[in-house]
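Aim 2 progress update. The chain analyzed this quarter is reproduced below.
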Amino acid sequence: MDLRKEKKMEHQYSLQERRRLHNLAIATMYLEKDVNIGGIIRTANAAAVKEVIIVGRRKFDWTGITSAKGKTPVTRLRTLDEFLEYVDQKSYNLCALEISPNATNIFDFKYPENPVLVVGNEGRGMPEKLLERSELIKLPQYGDVECLNVATSLAIAIYDWIRKNAILPERKIRDYKFI
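Predicted structure tokens:
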């Protein structure tokens, strides 16, 4: 069998294998920057997150994440109330990334069953109504910046969840790429 055909078969197998997803969902609240949403969707795919929920965006430019398009389950909701109703229907447990003295340091946080990690708007953060229903997680900081980028913060939290709860095997590497 030639190498090209073998790679194609491995790629098809790995796509089938990756249909298994981690029991983790993520949600964004009213994000404005396509680059943040794109980074989040690409990270969600790399981490085999079961669902990305985008609240408040009507349009999105998929240009920067074409390799994740169609491979990452994305649900779009218009409002916070729709999101909270959806969370109840799915029996998700809300875990919000928030800079707050009431938040638990991510290093000590124990994730509930069926979590949805939520991040807020790049400048305004999250609605109070959402925070009141959520377990709060903070990422400790030691430098001078006031906060991390929203996509970076969520990526850290996703991989923290995986470190503590992963069920899927890591993908193999060939020629410096995951296959």
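Confidence is low (pLDDT under 50) at residues 1-18. The domain at 15-178 is CATH 3.40.1280.10 (Alpha/beta knot). These observations will guide the mutagenesis experiments scheduled for the next reporting period.
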